[in-house]
Amino acid sequence: MAKHDPALSQLFHALSDPTRRAILTRLAEGPARVTELSEPTGLRLPTVMRHLSVLEEVGLIATAKDGRVRTCAIVPEALAPARTWLDEQRSLWEARLGRLEAMAMKAMKERDR
What we know:
single chain, three-stranded antiparallel sheet, 3 strands, alpha+beta, Arc Repressor Mutant, subunit A, 63% helix
């Protein structure tokens, strides 16, 4: 069985929710207040805060509080483990597909003889 990385699992869990992905998409434009992030979701503030908590726990966002205003910012380098894993998977499957293609070409040549 493949090695299990709990941190990577948590990262993919955080990215699995469409609301959290929408929040990250918005934060890619620049930092935003929590109230700004909650408006397009149609969710209540406590629900949005739970989503932000999940994102913050895995390090995808950082928050800062100034008085009563909490501002969030994306931490793009936190996506590096997911990118690394996906790149490894891509390499693995490209190699497998290359071997399959070579095998199919060999079979076609033998059939044509």
